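Our platform keeps sequence and structure together, in a single record for each protein. Such a record has a labelled line for the sequence and another for the backbone structure tokens. The tokens are whole numbers drawn from a learned vocabulary of local backbone shapes. The remainder of this section carries one protein's record, kept here as part of the documentation:
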Amino acid sequence: MTVTFDHVHDRRSTGSLKWDFMTEKLGLDSEERLPMWVSDYDFQAPPAVLEALSQRIEHGIFGYAERNNEYYQAIINWYQQQHGINIDQRWITTVHGVLPGLSMLIQMLTKPGEQVVMQTPGYGSFRKITELNDREIVANPLVNDNGDYRMDLNHLEQCFAQGCKVMIFCNPHNPVGKAWSQSEIFALAELCERYQVWLLSDEIWGDLAMPGHQYYSALSLPEHLQQRLIVATAASKTFGLSSLRISNFMIPNSDVKAQFVRRLDAHGMDVYNSLAMCAATTAYQSSGDWLKALKLYLQGNIDTLSTFIEQELPALQFQQPQAGYLAWVDCRQLGIDDSVLEKRLVDAGIVPSMGIAFGTEGAGFIRLNLGCPRDTLLEACKRLKVALAK
């Protein structure tokens, strides 16, 4: 299989959030700036997916569609072959995106005013959907050990003891790129069981464990630790299908699954996008080799940035991500505040995600999206040097 990720595709004027909406979302003139903020690829989807979508569009009829056995079997086979996880089809609930599903679970499992735990620095949309549902976020800060992050389980137990009902767990973690070990996930799940806390594990980055690292799903936990567990998955990050809104929630507890399906039905979310199902099914069936090639390419991008920082910007600290294509870069040794740091970067023509957006623990950090052709990354490195070498 010959795959190249070096081709630079022009995404401007395609309605791309990442490329076309820097002005509306960030207040920035986007004409000459490189967007390194939104976490999606600048690569085309796998060839097999493009071909399947083309055939589906040529058919020309887009009436009501439903998940068939092929859809379910593609998911089950993928997780068994790629990760050694045996998924029962009865666990699978399909939702129009991970965040909508998490939002409805927060509504279902908690009452207004109750507490939800998230680990920080953490994905800002977890906080957004929690607070917009009138629940309180309780932060469980990760421990930063020279760039290697670990859980503070003692503090987490205090959070649970004070009455938190739900924990949103990011596995692997965005933004720090940590692929949690099996023992860490087991210890976390035991705490949840002891304090009767629901564990909502967002595993959308699981397929993107980098070479030499392993993703462990919470679905590999023993059965007695699965009854308060819900795992969110999707093909979107893996295969570059983010705007084809479809995700799958794995719910081993049959009563909770039935309650969740009823809530989806109450919101009219019982009809599925035929193109999204086609893309996800084909990706899981036919794009394993494409993913292997992609991860090698992404690792090359990670190595490129790591070498550049070491040689050209030694004041920055960069621990390579164990999973995902997001670089979490520590700029604190520069001794400048976040507003100055952001202005320097933007003035040099590069738009990152500022670490402070992921919680106070992210102050002094930036997150850079490395899901781009190598030439784009090399241009971004030049701009980083202009912005920060002084």
